[in-house]
Amino acid sequence: MVADRSPAVTLDAVAKVFPGKAAPALADLCATIEPGQFVAVIGKSGAGKTTLLRCLSRAVPVTSGTIRFDRTDLAKLRGAALRAHRARVGMIYQQFNLVRRLAVIDNVLIGRLARLRGWARWAALAHRFDAKQRAIAFRCLDHVGLLDRVWQRTDTLSGGEQQRVAIAKILAQEPTVVLADEPVASLDLSNGRLVMQTLRRVASAVGITVVATLHHVDHARNYADRILGLKAGRLVFDGPASQLTDAALFEIFGEFLTEPGRSEGERLGELAAS
Amino acid sequence: MSAAFTSIHAGPTPPVPARPSVAGRTMLATVALAVVFGLAGRVVELRPLELVRDIGNVGVFLRGYLHPSFGNVGEYAWQCVVTVCIALWGTVLALMVSVPLGLLGARNLSPHPLVYFIARRLMDVLRAVNEFVFALMFVTAVGLGPFAGMLALGIHTGGVLGKLLSETIESVDPGQVEGVAAVGAGRLHVIAFGVVPQVLPNFLSYVLLRLESDIRSASVIGMVGGGGIGFYLWDTIRSFKDGEAATVILLIVAMVMCIDVVSARVRRAAI
């Protein structure tokens, strides 16, 4: 996939301060993510996980520091170059962000849009795709095990199925990096596990780099090569799952285990994980 | 069963924070509304007693309409068909006007705030100017007849549908649009996949609604030379041919009823 071994994503002293907020959302973040790595970002609510992902996806600009994908500086991208960059970065969202009224096949074909050339781009405006593109979409859907849903309207699928359609869309898009913002936060435990397995499997199969924010520590442990722990916008842990000890978890989550108002199930889940 | 809840339901009431009072504001609003409607009533010269006293005159006026004369019914029926055709092509023109204006006038799609502003103001003008005024204007260009009427209806309705379209576009779920833009799709592809599926059902419903209302408008636009049944409505009433006017009115009512039935069916089938 990636011919040269330059890092997939480089964060260099990245900081983000939202206007009107004294404390920075991200401060002095440095990390180098190698091609093909599956990276989980964990931390408490408000620790900066989502902000980091929004900076990576260029939804918000960084206040200082640089983010590079391959060798491209994210801040310098405009117009056509920005669209070309987006084509190389796949997005997975907590709320799936599929077009709900379209059929499953159309949502997968959306992944192909940036790759169409010539007449095919105009035909796509009328939702027309040639046999080759449709064949790719069928194969991608088959890969996530949802080929039987191909003609169904997307909003008739369950949440877990919709997230797997989103993964099929990513496969159709052929990105080098996938950014996943809480991909399983709105799914139940077994569907979440199935989605994480699917994501892990396709990432390994095609060698894409994945950066995912996860609030379930056990998901991060089970599926990630590398875990980044954020606390108050700072990187307090960076290492493989095997190094994520109780002490490291306490460092990331602090008073987390005694925090009031959390459901018993979540607390037990965290205890079991630690 | 309920015994388990007694410890919660019975016993002393806890101290409840005082409910914020809105009595003063309610009173003020009531007085203000009464003043506004009172003054507006003076302006429109509300005289309900006169209406009750002289209601009989209406009966005298209507007596002539009790005996419709069907001598020219063929011509009138044909003019009803012309009226429907004016509205149909007026709607086509309205679509050609409203789709670009609606896209440019939607805050979340407009390429530039200035473009947004111009598109919005242009739609305001098209809506503010009555279709009758447009008809008078187009009559000077293309002469009396249905073509002028169709142009007038289409331009005015283009402004109305454009505004409705841009408001509909502004209320789409941005997440679904982001999901398409995120793959690196171009602006037109983002619209075709992220926006159109979300706005299409609502917009179709608005188009049907305007088509119905355009048929009603087209049935009077003939008064100013825009073609269709309106000319005969105007002509027969002005020349006191009550029987003929009654026929024309009956045909218009029948036409509007038919259109309502048809559009209800189309709506059910399409949306």
How is this structure best summarized?
The complex is a heterodimer of chains A (274) and B (271). Chain A has helices at residues 49-56, 79-88, 104-110, 119-125, 131-143, 159-173, 189-206, 217-223, 246-253, 264-273, and strands at 9-16, 26-33, 38-43, 64-69, 72-73, 89-92, 177-181, 209-213, 226-231, 234-239.
Structural class of chain A: alpha/beta
Biggest sheet statistics of chain B: none
Silhouette of chain B: extended
- Average pLDDT taken over every residue of chain A: 87
**CATH homologous superfamily grouping of chain A:** P-loop containing nucleotide triphosphate hydrolases
How much of the sequence lies in strands of chain B comes to under 5%
**What's the quaternary structure here?**
heterodimer
Q: Which strand order do you get reading across the main beta sheet of chain A?
A: 6-7-8-3-9-10
- Taken in chain order, the helices and strands of chain B follow as HHHHHHHHHHHH
Order of helices and strands of chain A: EEEHEEHEHHHHEHEHEEHH
- The helix count of chain A comes to 10
The greatest inter-chain interface is formed by: A-B, 32 and 21 residues
Percent helix of chain A, as a range, is: 25-40%
Q: What count of structural domains of chain A? A: 1
Number of strands of chain B: 0
- Return the CATH architecture of chain A: 3-Layer(aba) Sandwich
CATH topology of chain B: MetI-like fold
Cα(first) to Cα(last) distance of chain B is 49 Å
| Helical content band of chain B | over 70%
* The CATH class of chain A: Alpha Beta
